[in-house]
Design goal:
The chain has 305 residues and is mainly alpha-helical. It has two domains: 2-105, DNA polymerase, domain 1 (Orthogonal Bundle), CATH 1.10.150.130; 117-292, hpI Integrase, Chain A (Orthogonal Bundle). It is 57% helix and 4% strand. It is built from 14 helices and three strands. It has helices at residues 2-14, 20-39, 50-62, 67-86, 113-120, 128-142, 147-151, 181-199, 203-207, 225-238, 247-260, 265-272, 277-280, 284-298, and strands at 158-159, 164-168, 174-178. Strands 1-2-3 form a three-stranded antiparallel beta sheet. Strand 1 and strand 2 (164-168) form a beta hairpin. Helix 6 crosses helix 11 (247-260).
Length: 305
């Protein structure tokens, strides 16, 4: 089981661009599950099942873990199972059938890294609408785009070689949004496979292709901002997140994760397209809370802070 976990961590590092902090957490916490499984005489991923996972989560509760920590571990385990499924190492994802523990607090206006990974992997990669939706989710998170900016994108605004898109923001201001490798790959898959299939649904659109990047199932440009909200709510519910998650939630997550990773506030301002840095400082409070938790956990006197 450890060998499969190492393969999953390598995938997160090379394909998802996960940070050392994320890799360390995933390795340690999924490793906890493997140790628990071995204590129950389970030595292979195909032997694991829903009762085993529920027993593990119950043991974590008895040890005093907070609901948020238990939920995070379940998200990580789900993601690992999905990877193992894609690698044909297992046929089932029992973690997907285990209810996420209720976290006794209001969901903040941003998602954890684990929740974002869960959300991004929800669309069907073999369905044209799934390819489109994955590309949309990647742009909202990897590029920090606003909902209207996604809708206004044209095919010619995408530069896959440079992994960037030209964005027209508020006040018709232009900026360049930088994309990670997974986002660029999702866009490339959509442009090469998903979009042509959507265009084929409308003979007129196929004959005179629209310049809009994202199309609906009838091969026409997505015109309604409500459609993006519906898409996001659909996948949020699928992975156990509240349907109230919005495109701005992913934009907020983009900025928060950048700052938590050490990015300069001015850089984040530029990437978000904010006119004033004061607008960007709204994200720093969340980051300060994160830093406070890190100090509390890591510093010798942290628990006295």
């Amino acid at each position: 089981m450890e060998a499969e976990l190492r393969r999953f961590l390598l995938y997160l590092e090379l394909e998802r661009g996960a940070s050392p902090y994320t890799l360390r957490n995933y390795g340690a916490e999924i490793g906890e599950f493997i140790a628990f499984a071995r204590s129950r005489d389970v030595h292979d991923w195909v032997q694991t099942d829903v009762p085993l996972i529920r027993s593990w989560l119950a043991a974590l509760h008895r040890q005093g873990y907070e609901a948020a920590s238990v939920a995070r571990r379940l998200y990580e385990l789900r993601s690992c199972y999905r990877f193992l499924q894609r690698q044909k190492l297992v046929t089932d994802n029992p973690a997907a059938r285990v209810r996420v523990p209720a976290v006794p607090r209001r969901l903040p206006d941003y998602l954890t890294v684990e929740q974002v990974f869960e959300l991004l992997e929800a669309p069907d990669p073999d369905d044209p609408l799934g390819m489109r939706d994955r590309a949309i989710l990647e742009l909202l998170y990897s590029g920090g785009l606003r909902r209207g900016e996604v809708l206004s994108l044209r095919v010619q605004d995408v530069d896959l070689a440079a992994r960037q898109v030209r964005v027209w923001g508020k006040g018709k201001k232009q900026r360049i949004a930088l994309l990670g490798r997974p986002a660029a790959q999702a866009l490339q898959r959509y442009l090469e496979m998903g979009r042509p299939q959507l265009l084929a649904a409308d003979p007129e659109a196929a004959a005179r292709p629209p310049v809009a990047l994202f199309l609906n199932r009838r091969g026409r440009p997505i015109a309604s901002a409500r459609t993006l909200n519906t898409i996001l709510s659909h996948y949020a519910r699928r992975v156990g997140l509240p349907s109230s998650v919005t495109p701005h939630t992913l934009r907020h997550s983009f900025a928060t994760h950048l700052l938590e990773g050490g990015a300069d506030l001015r850089v984040v301002q530029e990437l978000l397209g904010h006119e004033s840095v004061q607008t960007t400082t709204v994200y720093t409070q969340v980051t300060l809370n994160h830093l406070r938790r890190v100090v509390t956990a890591a510093h010798p006197y942290g628990d006295q802070a």
